[in-house]
Design a protein that fits this description.
GO terms for molecular function: 6-phospho-beta-glucosidase activity. This is 6-phospho-beta-glucosidase. By secondary structure, the chain is an alpha/beta fold. Helices cover about 40% and strands about 15% of the residues. An eight-stranded parallel barrel has the order 1-2-3-4-5-7-11-12, surrounded by six helices. The protein has a two-stranded parallel sheet with strand order 6-8. The chain has a two-stranded antiparallel ribbon with strand order 9-10.
Length: about 475
């Protein structure tokens, strides 16, 4: 490695990332409609009757809706160069299929954008992040219905038109491949027998690919110089042994993720996926012009989350050695330690993923989620000594810097949850990610006041030195 190239570039987008449904609260204020998250009190599961009776932390979040100025001021104190946030689709279009936008909802996001710009923080907008309007599930059956392409295109054009002079960076769908693993969360899909139906899932994926391509097309037309990326939940898969069968199992597992970035970055369905469709008797309904649309409107960069790696094995005895994380699961790696929630910690895997994606696409990468969920303790003096979080992030940022030394083009890094928020997978607050502590627990009790953790000053220094200490 040439040490001279092992350096974060000037203009590197250091910051943090959040999702609307996990921190905004105000779930029924100012004309907002219900989202899929609003009926998912346990995270990725929802009551079959969409009941609102169970307590749901998403409803109030951490009240970012009313505290965004206070929180953005803290992000500015951290020195953020970028802040990734998502638009709540039902805050703009309450049922999802309206023609006219809810102006109060749109104004809220413009207020956020203006506040970020005030502090010279680059807004990075995720158009859809696990919060589609519940009305689109009830009326249309979610993303398996092609009508949603039209509704999403309207959403994206509304956003581009309003922010065209203020926002340059966008992502179309958060962790689009999670549709395979959590169909309701990722696509508003429900199945009568409770078993996943791959025909519906991959049809929904095709519709999301079309919607993403139309957003890329509109964004490039409406916003001069727009940078629009895809976003996948990424994790490298290792073979459990050197057996050729394990190696192919690892390749097959990785393809389940890479299929989604392949279509959005390369613009076509890969042969391995067409073969899979044939084997499983899956027939994707397409209309004339679909493939040309995908080919002509590929993304500008690859955004991805990285929290862990997985292992693949063909040995039956390893089936009971499972580990889970970020809505996915795999065989446990005996060489890695795990977080309190069983997510295996693999900093070197981040370097490997960066090389894998850059070798495959030769497009800039944007690491838009990475972090450690942990139980934080407030000491008697009011401090939060989260050295474990510092150690986790320190190790991953070092490997990101190593990837840059490998020749990988990385445009930014936004850690997940710079402020404590509601967990997507478990809908709890005791699993904390932030540099900023929020005084609220998983029962909804607390003052909602914000406090700096030890990691706050650490990350502030990372940004201020542009990662030179690594």
């Amino acid at each position: 490695m040439n040490t001279k190239t092992r350096k974060f570039p000037d203009g590197f987008l250091w910051g943090g990332a959040v999702a609307a449904n996990q921190l905004e609260g105000a779930y029924n204020e100012d004309g907002k409609g219900l989202s899929t998250a609003d009926v998912s009190p346990n995270g990725i599961m929802c009551p079959p009757d969409f009941s609102m009776e169970q307590f749901n932390l998403y409803h109030d979040g951490i009240d970012f809706y009313h505290k965004y100025k206070e929180d953005i001021a803290l992000f500015a104190e951290l020195g953020f160069k970028a802040f990734r946030f998502s638009i709540s689709w039902p805050r703009l279009f309450p049922n999802g299929d309206e023609v006219e936008v809810n102006e109060k909802g749109l104004q809220f996001y413009e207020n956020i954008v203006d506040e970020l710009i005030k502090y010279n923080i680059e807004p990075v907008i995720t158009i859809s992040h696990y919060e589609m309007p519940l009305g689109l599930v009830k009326t249309y059956g979610g993303w398996k219905n092609r009508k949603l392409v039209e509704f999403y295109e309207r959403l994206s054009k509304t956003i581009f038109t309003r922010f065209k002079d203020k926002v340059k960076y966008y992502m179309t769908f958060n962790e689009i491949n999670v549709l395979l693993h959590a169909p309701f969360t990722g696509g508003g899909l429900l199945f009568e027998d409770g078993k996943k139906n791959e025909q519906d899932i991959y049809q929904a994926a095709h519709h999301q690919f079309l919607a993403s391509a139309l957003a890329v097309k509109a964004g490039h037309e409406i916003v001069p110089g727009a940078q629009i990326g895809c976003m996948i939940a990424s994790m490298i898969t290792y073979p459990y042994t050197s057996k050729p069968e394990d190696m192919f199992a690892a390749l097959t597992q990785d393809r389940k993720t890479l299929f989604f970035s392949d279509v959005q970055s390369r613009g076509y369905y890969p042969t391995y996926m067409m073969n899979y469709f044939n084997e499983k008797n899956i027939e994707i309904e397409m209309e004339e012009g679909d493939l040309a649309l995908l080919q002509d409107n590929t993304v500008d960069y690859i955004g991805f989350s990285y929290y862990m790696s997985f292992v693949a094995s063909t040995a039956p005895e390893h089936n009971d050695e499972k580990t889970a994380g970020n809505l996915l699961a795999g065989v446990k790696n005996p060489h890695l330690r795990s977080s309190e929630w069983g997510w295996q910690i693999d900093p070197v895997g981040l370097r490997t993923v960066c090389n894998q994606l850059y070798d495959r696409y030769q497009k800039p990468l944007f690491i838009v989620e990475n972090g450690l969920g942990a139980v934080d303790k407030v000491e008697e003096d009011g401090s939060i000594q989260d050295n474990y979080r510092i150690d986790y992030l320190d190790a991953h940022i070092k490997e990101m810097k190593n990837a840059i030394g490998d020749g990988v083009e990385i445009m930014g890094y936004t850690s997940w949850g710079p402020i404590d928020l509601v967990s997507a997978s478990t809908a709890e607050l005791k699993k904390r990610y932030g540099f900023i502590y929020v005084d609220r627990d998983s029962e909804g009790k607390g003052t909602n006041n914000r406090y700096k953790k030890k990691s706050f000053d650490w990350y502030k220094n990372v940004i201020a030195t542009n990662g030179e200490d690594f």
